[in-house]
Specification:
Number of domains: 1
Strand order of the largest sheet: 3-4-7-8-9-10-12-13
Distance between the termini: 23 Å
Number of helices: 11
Oligomer: single chain
Order of helices and strands: HHEEEHEEEHEHEHEHEEHEHEHH
CATH topology: TIM Barrel
CATH superfamily: Aldolase class I
Number of strands: 13
Strand content: 15-25%
Largest sheet: 8 strands, parallel, barrel
Length: 337
C-alpha cells in the first residue's frame, strides 16, 4: 500500500518548505530501511535512449526537489528513469528570505521564489560521490545571485567544469524567474556568448575526460514565438544536445483572484500545463527532431504526460505533480507511456 494518501493531509498542514524537508527525510528513512518498495513505481523498466544515453524509463525528476544532491538514492528508489539535481551555484547561498514557497491546492499549483538556495557545487559533488545510484543523473547549474549578469558565463563555466566528471548530462538554468536578471541570458547576444563559451568548454572537457557529457538548456514558458524560434536556431547553431521546456511561469492569469496570486515567484503545477505544452510544440516544429526535448510543467496525470510526448517531447519530468499526487503519479504515467 502506498502511504502517501495518508501522509499528504499531515504534510499539507505543515509550512510548505518544512513539509518539503520532512518528506525528503522520510524518503531517506524508507530507502535505508527497505520500506521504499511500498512507494516505488512498479514495472519501471521501460528503457529509452535519448542524447546517446540509455534511460531506465522516460519519466524523470525535475531539478529543484533535491538541490544539493542529498537524497539521490532515496529518490532513485522510487523508480524514476532519471534524476536531475540542483540548481547549484559555484558558491553556497541562502536564497531569498522566507516565506518563499506557497501551495495553491485549488489549482494544484505551487509558487516559489527560492532563489537558488543551495550549499554550493563542491557539496553537491561530494554527495554524488557518496551516492550508490547507477542511473542517469543530470546536474542543473546556475549563477550566484551577486554575480553580475555580464559575468554570468564564468559561473556557468565553473559549474560545468566541476560537475562534468560526475554528471550524465548538465543543464544550464537560464530561465528561473527568482534570480534577478537571469532570464536576460535567454536573449540577444547574452545567449550567444553563453552557449559559445559553454560548448567550447564542453569539447575541451570531453578530451580531458575521454567522455562526452551532453549539454542541455532549460527555457522559460513566458517566451513568444519569435523568441522560441530564435532560441531553437541557436541551439542548433551551437550543437546543444537537448532542451528542457519549461521552467516556472511569472504569468498569473491562470490563478487570477486567488489569495496568493500576487506572491512573487515562479508558478508551477497544473496552471502552467498549456503554456509549457505550447512551447514544446513550437520547439518540436522548429527543431524537427534534430535536438531532443525534455518536457516539464503541469504534469498531474498520465494524460498530461502523454500530451507532452505527443507534442514532441522525448522525455518528461515531474515535480509539482509529485507533491499533489505522490509516487502513484509516476506509476500511472509509466503504465500509459
Amino acid at each position: 500500500m502506498n502511504p502517501y494518501p495518508l501522509l499528504k493531509p499531515i504534510l499539507f498542514r505543515l509550512e510548505p518548505e518544512l513539509a518539503h524537508t520532512v518528506t525528503l527525510k522520510l524518503l531517506n528513512f524508507a530507502e535505508k530501511t527497505g520500506l521504499a518498495r511500498l512507494t516505488a513505481a512498479k514495472n519501471s523498466d521501460k528503457p529509452v535512449t535519448v542524447m546517446g544515453l540509455k534511460f531506465k524509463n522516460a519519466v524523470g525528476l525535475a531539478a529543484g526537489l533535491d538541490k544539493n544532491g542529498d537524497y539521490i538514492d532515496a529518490l532513485a528508489a522510487l523508480g524514476f528513469g532519471f534524476i536531475e539535481i540542483g540548481t547549484v551555484t559555484p558558491r553556497p547561498q541562502l536564497g531569498n528570505s522566507k516565506p518563499r514557497l506557497f501551495r495553491l491546492p485549488e489549482h494544484e499549483a505551487i509558487i516559489n521564489r527560492m532563489g537558488f538556495n543551495n550549499l554550493g557545487v563542491d557539496h553537491l559533488i561530494n554527495q554524488v560521490k557518496k551516492s550508490r545510484y547507477q542511473g542517469i543523473l543530470g546536474v542543473n547549474i546556475g549563477k550566484n545571485f551577486d554575480t553580475p549578469i555580464n559575468e554570468a558565463v564564468n559561473d556557468y563555466l565553473l559549474g560545468l567544469r566541476k560537475s562534468y566528471a560526475y554528471a550524465n548530462y548538465i543543464t544550464l538554468n537560464i530561465s528561473s524567474p527568482n534570480t534577478k536578471n537571469l532570464r536576460q541570458l535567454q536573449q540577444g547576444d547574452q545567449i550567444k556568448k553563453l552557449l559559445s563559451a559553454l560548448k567550447e568548454e564542453q569539447l575541451i572537457l570531453e578530451k580531458q575526460h575521454q567522455n562526452y557529457v551532453p549539454l542541455v538548456v532549460k527555457i522559460a514558458p513566458d517566451l513568444d514565438d519569435e523568441q522560441i524560434q530564435h532560441i531553437a536556431k541557436l541551439l542548433g547553431d551551437f550543437s546543444i544536445d537537448g532542451v528542457i521546456a519549461t521552467n516556472t511561469t511569472i504569468d498569473r492569469k491562470m490563478v487570477k483572484g486567488h489569495l496568493l496570486a500576487n506572491e512573487l515567484g515562479g508558478l508551477s503545477g497544473s496552471p502552467v500545463k498549456e503554456k509549457s505544452t505550447y512551447i514544446v510544440k513550437v520547439l518540436a516544429s522548429e527543431l524537427n527532431g534534430s535536438i531532443p526535448i525534455i518536457a516539464v510543467g503541469g504534469i498531474l496525470n498520465a494524460e498530461d504526460a502523454t500530451e507532452k510526448i505527443d507534442a514532441g517531447a522525448s522525455l518528461v519530468q515531474i515535480y509539482s505533480g509529485l507533491i499533489y499526487k505522490g509516487t502513484q503519479l509516476l506509476e500511472d504515467i509509466l503504465k500509459h507511456l
